[in-house]
User: Fold alpha-1,2-Mannosidase from Salarias fasciatus.
Amino acid sequence: SPLKSAFPLSARRHQPFLPLNRLPGVSASGMGLRLSQKFVFLLFLSGLVTLCFGALFFLPDSVRLKRIFLSKTEIQPVTVGSGSENDVREHVKRPKEQEHLRGMTPAKGDAQEEFKRCLAKAPLGRDGGKPSDPQTHERREKVKEMMKFAWDNYKHFAWGKNELRPLTRNGHIGNMFGECQGASIIDSLDTLYIMGLMEEYNDAKEWVQTSLDLNSNGEASLFEVNIRYVGGLLSAYYLTGEELFKTKVLELGEKLLPAFNTPTGIPRGVINLGSGTSWSWGWASAGSSILAEFGTLHLEFVHLSELSNNPIYTEKVMNIRKLLNKIEKPHGLYPNFLSPVSGNWVQHHVSIGGLGDSFYEYLIKSYLMSDKTDEDAKNMYYSALEAIEANLVQKSPGGLTYMAEWRGGILDHKMGHLACFSGGMIGIGADDGAQEKRQHYLDLAAEITHTCHESYTRSATKLGPEAFRFDGGAEATATRLSDRYYILRPEVIESYMYMWRLTHDPKYREWGWEAVEALEQHCRVESGFSGIRDVYTMTVSHDNMQQSFFLSETLKYLYLLFSDDDLLSLEDWVFNTEAHPLPIVRRSCMQDGATQDKTASK
Assistant:
């Protein structure tokens, strides 16, 4: 503080006290001051006043004092919406003065404790989800061993890097996360924890505490940082209660906000976490934003608002939804490219796979995570699903149901591995559809999951290609060399897990075990797991990459598939698109608690 620097501590502590009659320049009779000393005294007094007011207006914690001295018209609250980076950061720092949109009442004080109380209970179930069936238990233990093997090799050869290169035994940084590192660590926190690998979990937690640096520059994907880092830290906090994870995720969440500083509030896809500057991907059509990227923020941002007591995160994602509801959609479909400047669609390419996929997933999951109170998300999801069924769902001559892609009204009879998540998505949404369509949705989910399983069984390795086609006599097989690779993707196994939870049909566990055997035979190498370049040949060529999502998603979904349903129960948890579990926010519980408190106080 400038006030303290004007009076050094040593001088203040050791200056002797002098009696008035011994003060220099003061007469014993009149104690009057000479003219020159009056001038010095006034000069000192004016300097002191200047220092006080300087501290008042320029020290960072002076905002409350400013409100005392300045009129209300001079101190205007920062508005939410598009604006400068400084506007966003000031809004994050100032005390919350608004309420969450759509009844998301901000929690503070006792309300924050009530929020915690109403989150999911016993996430690990009665006995960590341990199945009673010996064979299923043995299979679950095998998946746990695979996770430990993958983790141990990452720690030994690539610790702190984003991913492991198992053939060359070194780390890979990549360019999706700017200069942020440790993606495999953040992605693995919850998987290690639910598997009971506590030594490994504690190593990961220590790295977060000592080495996770969020003040980085470089080109970072808003989407990837959100689903992996924000999602991973949120789930680690909710599962363990460790405040470290909460502190880190709130620090990171603030750094993502400048991406929304566009004329429409639709965020750009790339952000520099250090400077806050953002831009669109160079490959995106006409500087557009991607549906699956700006549409895959809602779950995490709602929880950021809950934990920070700041509505800005919820407001940002609700603004996206408001714009999407307003603009015209061709045949009820959502194209993959949208201009963040004009708010108009840039191309009429529609896909349930890459570029579109998780937008639809987050609609139904937003509804479920809100404890089924977010009616807007529900209506958007079922309207979109109706349009998808009318325009994209097809049946092959061999009887396989698949999701085609739509290019300006022309169907491309291709289905990507990424689109295979949709079996699970349609399954978890089946029970909340119209009464007469619930069984239909469950049947559709089963048919799509069956088709994706066929894409695995029709390859030599029993692993599925990146994309498979239904034309030229082909069914559920890749016809192009560029589509024949497998990079440890989880989407097919994800649908197996959901369909097992919903139906308990044993075939889903059998299909999951087939995948385990194929991964062990073709993807396990001496120092980790690697993707392969061609699923149709038994002489495999490895791509030398152990993806972080293999640890976060593929192995977690397999572990859950062979666990009892009370391990991360779907009644209490929703998984983000990187398989990080987030608790359902039970507003009814919080309202009941508030009612009980009022009754007790009477």
Q: What stands out?
A: The chain has one domain: 109-597. Residues 390 and 514 are 33 Å apart (CA to CA).
